Amino acid sequence: MHSMPHDHTSARIKRLRRSRGLTQADLAGLAGISASLLTKVERGERPPTPYVIASLARAMQVDVATVTGQPYVAELRADQLDVLIRPIREALDVYDLGADPEISPRPVQLLAADAEALLIAVRAGEIKQAAGLLPGLIQEVTTAAHAAPSDALWRLLASTYRSAYDVTSKLGYADLAAIALARLEWAAERASSATLGGMYRYFRALTYFRDGQYRTGQRLTDLGLSILLQAEPGREREVVTGQLHLGAAVMAGRSRNGDLAEGHLAEAERIAAATGEAVELHYLAFGPTNVRVHRVAVLAELDQYGQAAQQGREVVIPRDWPASRRSHHHAEVARAQMWTGDLEGSFQSLLRARKAAPQQARYHHTVRDTYAGLEAAHRLLPDSFQSYGSWLGV
Length: 394
Fold this sequence. Notes:
This protein has helices spanning about 10-20, 25-30, 35-45, 50-60, 65-70, 75-80, 85-95, 110-125, 125-145, 150-170, 175-190, 195-210, 215-230, 235-255, 260-275, 290-300, 305-315, 325-340, 345-355, 360, 365-375, 385-390. It contains 22 helices and no strands. The protein is an all-alpha fold. About 50% of the residues are buried. It has 4 domains: about 1-70, lambda repressor-like DNA-binding domains (434 Repressor (Amino-terminal Domain), Orthogonal Bundle), CATH 1.10.260.40; about 75-190, no CATH class; about 205-320; about 325-394, no CATH class.
């Protein structure tokens, strides 16, 4: 079930509930939330939190993406992004066919430069550019790795699969993102890289996090931390370890385990104090800034929106921080501000999210759900609010 014009999460929840013959009381009971909250959500009076969305999705036995309406097909078609998905799928499908006789790979140095440029494009929020370059590079590196296997080429192939995961997950194609992750693991095993193995568990944990399966996600982060102990000691291992702790912290926050979340944040903070800002190392943007940003996200997951909004506004983001991470942070702050009743502040944060990474913000369900939450009070907001909705396509 994909998004439709003027569709939003609250409407989809109501439609899904009715299609299953459930009353609001029935669904609320199955999801473990109050019937009054569900009523307000379906009326559009209160936007659903990610925790509520995941709980309702589990209760109705559907994917979270079905509830959020991803992928947003009409908007993808309008932006001519839909035609880029099939080539990515086809490139991911030839991983085990060996070297393609019709492809003559360039030298590894040139392939590595293109793989890094791809990572940079994704971090800059240039999703369309990345999606266009991705299939050809995956196929070329796949042939190079099969023709002359080496740890360096397998790591390079893993990097392209990681970019495929980033692009497809940002566009809402959860099934394709899962395939990209499976390919990443396949390449990481051939590269004999414990660091890549830990990163794979981190990204895989995020997929379970988005789908509301927090226990499985936590087990994956624990496994990733264990695997990283086998990696060569040094800054690279510390950075990936710290990022795993940040992912685990947000996961614990959404599962309402504040103590566990704080423990992971404290460990990440300790590691970040030693590594400093490591923005470009595996392009995870790990460092003290990312710890502060994740603390805001954890507060929001724990429904402590006032503190999340306040601390979110106080975060000073370095100039070299990735635009995609900057945009995501502004979206998180916008959601927290909306829940505290700061409508103007929330809308301004949505504008910042769009300015930082327009393509990413357009397909970010937090941006869309926050906008939907503000829509009922649009008379209190500036005229540009309506034009923002037109840009989103809602």
